[in-house]
Task: inverse folding
């Protein structure tokens, strides 16, 4: 790959595709086993990604300018068909994301506050019941 567009987070999906967050392009890329690239979603300057067994992608988008800490980070859901939905706007600097082994909880680390937040993953893939979990 000649131009990675400052790619950061990467994860593998349930069908062996590798997903990459191309920050400068504000795109989510998917690569097949032969290395062919598809643009899955646009308009997200992602940092970290985790992918559920059903193919739903959860992505952190920290503030784009680290000096503007008055801004907030976003948590995105990108469905396998590329449909995107903002799930949360509020962590100071979301940097780190994971699913519980049973995929009923989503965990997001907030670098600035040093809190880890937990969310319940709803049947439709959205999240709810945000709680500060660990400091």
Result:
């Amino acid at each position: 790959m000649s131009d990675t567009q400052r790619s950061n987070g990467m994860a593998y999906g349930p069908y062996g595709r590798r997903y990459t967050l191309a920050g400068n392009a504000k795109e989510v890329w998917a690569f097949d086993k032969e290395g062919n690239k598809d643009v899955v979603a646009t308009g997200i300057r992602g940092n970290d990604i985790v992918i559920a067994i059903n193919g739903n992608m959860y992505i952190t988008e920290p503030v784009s300018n680290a000096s503007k800490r008055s801004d907030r980070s976003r948590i995105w859901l990108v469905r396998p068909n590329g449909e995107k939905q903002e799930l949360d706007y509020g962590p100071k600097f979301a940097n780190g994301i994971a699913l519980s082994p049973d995929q009923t909880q989503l965990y997001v680390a907030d670098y600035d506050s040093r809190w880890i937040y937990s969310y319940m993953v709803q049947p439709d893939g959205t999240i709810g019941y945000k709680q500060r979990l660990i400091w």
